[in-house]
Amino acid sequence: MQLRYSFRVYPSAGQRQSLARAFGCARVVFNDALRVREDARVAGLPFVTSGELSKRLTAAKKTPERAWLAEVSSVILQQSLRDLDTAYRNFFGSLKGKRPKMGPPRFKSKRDTRQAIRFTANAGWKITPGKKLRLPKVGDLTVKWSRTLPSTPSTVTVIKDSAGRYFASFVIETGPEEVLMPVTPEVGIDLGLGHFAVLSDGRKIDSPRFLRRAEKQLRKAQRALSRKEKGSANRNEARVRVARAHARVADARREFHHQLSTTLIRENQAIAVEDLAVKGLARTRLAKSVHDAGWSQFVTMLEYKASRYGRTFVRIGRFEPTSQVCSACGVKDGPKPLHVREWTCGTVLDRDINAAVNVANAAGLAVSARGAQVRPVPVPAQRDEAGTHPEPRPRTARQTGIALL
Description:
Elements: E1 2-10, H1 13-42, H2 50-60, H3 74-95, E2 115-120, E3 126-127, E4 132-135, E5 139-144, E6 155-160, E7 166-173, E8 186-191, E9 195-199, E10 204-206, H4 210-213, H5 215-226, H6 233-267, E11 270-274, H7 278-281, H8 287-293, H9 295-308, E12 312-316, E13 342-345, E14 347-350, H10 351-362, E15 373-376, H11 397-400
Parallel strand pairs: 8-11, 11-12
Antiparallel strand pairs: 1-5, 1-7, 2-6, 3-4, 4-5, 6-7, 8-9, 9-10, 13-14, 14-15
């Protein structure tokens, strides 16, 4: 499988200018090629092929209007054409129902705060003996290596994000040599907002709520941005401050997801999760909390890490009645309001732990349901019995004590 390793890059002032030139050239080539295809579509002409676009690019470099395209590596210009082809394939695939619905390719703007260029192996880029990243017509970039690359990268993408930071993203081919030793435990996971994750073995992981904790700082930075005159240098500086504040929140959330997913993959041979309708939940009054939790990113990490390390990952259907079935006896007694956190069916059941056990059972995992039973009781409780309203305190990833892979 292919993995991406991203590292922070610190270009000098001159290298930043070279990268800005490369970003601009790649954007112009993309827009020129898109305009050629759109003009052909409007005129009723056949679809312009990639080979024809490449020929037109070579011819454009010899004209006075586009002679400056020769100042950057030709590889990133060809990759820009390939990116356009990929956008068209995805669009046509969505029309045929082969992938989620998406719109046609759109023109790129020089005002986009995120820019990227890609170098393949034939571009001549390399990692120098001094551990610097040498890019053609850019120079040797200082890289902050946080880990060692497991193999020789096939491509590198240089990215400038909205906060003005630069990253080098390497594509690595990994093999079966990273498979972990088999273990016995298997676990089902119920994702939520009160707790980020509840496991079928009874463990509950508090939700860090990174966005909620940073809201005061974000509001202050956003107010300062709204007072700046449009188009001014002060407004651009304020925009960068807002982007950096959001980047810190996203980085903290991503680190938490990586640590938790790695721990679960190490400890369990099989993991089951429910296929949540995140897009639907994001249109409710809980939208901010749903986006703050980042369930989709976490589940994606679990899925690719399970494939990488030889674990089993199962995603059950979103219509599975995990909160309506007793995990102990299998009785289905219908939906329950969200305020009901416990109910009784022979034993007192915790709503979240019971759902996690049902997720594991639906996936066919051999889990222990001991966590679903809070305490035994001699008689059944009323069906309209009110539950409790736990108010967990937010914890940071450091407080949860989860190790990073």
